[in-house]
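lol forgot to send this yesterday, sorry. struct tokens for the thing we talked abt
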């Protein structure tokens, strides 16, 4: 890329921001694919086609193009989601009003995050976009404003708008981090969409213990390692290259984190078969039955000294807190002596779930 192209390149053209928008499209059921046969279009079968870099202008950004297509989807509504290019045609002027309505929706959504200019179109419609003033959903003589307002108010739009709002907020957050020096543009470009550095291996998110499907609205692929206080991890996709927090699926009979110091009690029902199958390990405390503890650990937990490293291959990018605590697990594996008879509470404990990650962090197995 020459110096002129570099100067014109959109600040949105970073993998971290692109990942936000690819994941947002997936959250509403649309897969993004890079192609050589189109600039930006939809096929009516759940796919957004974005041109490869050689086709796009240097000022274009995947984030902006996806945002534009999703705003088209809002304007056209569910009845046209299964139509190629949302049922629109650029062969003549009959759909110009609806194109203008899409731009008004863009301004309405992006302006709140200071992203109006960055999310602006780079096509011949840029002039119309830049002339929009005041409330983009209100204009006495422009029918596009009424179309845009109807799109925003439509009940079926709510989920899409929530997704777009979150994506715009995350984009603003990432741009601000770059601008204030918290994250340099070069580092931002080298980050996985969930915010961690890429791993130096050949794994993907799809093989990681911490990939799960969930979140508000329709479940989508997310990373449990990147979860915020609300419990929802950042969006990702199984096909993405793994980050440094990658770990293989949890093997319960080698891990034992939940049976160690991470948690301090396993309460069992009097009707749980473990009460009579493993009577020596069950104690009564008042009206409760619990599995007996051996110090800070479950009495059924067996420890094996392996003499090798911990179960996770190391990385210079790991958190210092992980490095400090992981020595507690180095060279040891833990297994349950009564695994086949384990209590219902243990059977219901989700391997790879949120509590599993908490347990592994507490004993130094996961960063």
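and heres what i got for the seq, position by position
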């Amino acid at each position: 890329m020459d110096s002129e192209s570099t100067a014109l390149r959109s600040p949105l053209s970073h993998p971290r921001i692109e990942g936000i928008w690819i994941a947002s499209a997936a959250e509403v059921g649309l897969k993004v694919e890079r192609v050589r046969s189109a600039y930006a279009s939809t096929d009516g079968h759940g796919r957004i086609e974005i041109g490869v870099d050689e086709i796009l202008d240097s000022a274009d950004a995947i984030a902006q193009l996806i945002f534009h297509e999703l705003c088209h989807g809002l304007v056209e509504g569910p009845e046209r989601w299964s139509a190629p290019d949302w049922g629109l045609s650029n062969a003549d002027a009959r759909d110009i009003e609806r194109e203008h309505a899409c731009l008004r929706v863009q301004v309405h959504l992006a302006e709140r995050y200071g992203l109006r200019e960055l999310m602006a179109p780079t096509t011949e419609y840029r002039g119309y976009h830049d002339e929009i003033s005041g409330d983009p959903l209100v204009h006495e003589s422009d029918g596009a404003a009424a179309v845009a307002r109807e799109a925003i108010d439509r009940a079926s739009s709510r989920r899409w708008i929530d997704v777009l709002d979150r994506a715009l907020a995350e984009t603003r957050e990432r741009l601000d981090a770059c601008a204030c020096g918290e994250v340099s543009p070069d580092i931002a470009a080298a980050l996985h969409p969930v915010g961690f550095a890429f791993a130096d291996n050949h794994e993907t998110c799809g093989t990681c213990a911490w990939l799960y499907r969930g979140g508000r609205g329709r479940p989508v692929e997310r990373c449990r390692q990147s979860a915020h206080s609300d419990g929802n991890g950042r969006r990702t996709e199984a096909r993405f290259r793994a980050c440094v927090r990658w770990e293989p699926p949890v093997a319960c009979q080698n891990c034992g984190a939940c049976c160690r110091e991470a948690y301090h009690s396993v309460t069992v029902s009097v009707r749980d078969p473990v009460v009579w199958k493993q009577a020596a390990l069950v104690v009564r405390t008042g009206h409760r039955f619990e599995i007996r503890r051996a110090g800070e650990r479950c009495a059924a937990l067996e420890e094996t000294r392996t003499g090798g490293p911990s179960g996770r291959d190391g990385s210079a990018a790991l958190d210092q807190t992980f490095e400090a605590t992981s020595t507690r697990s180095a060279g040891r594996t833990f297994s349950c002596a009564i695994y086949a008879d384990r209590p219902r509470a243990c059977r219901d404990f989700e391997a790879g779930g949120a509590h599993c990650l908490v347990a592994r962090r507490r004993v130094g197995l996961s960063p």
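The longest strand covers residues 31-35. anyway ping me if u want another try
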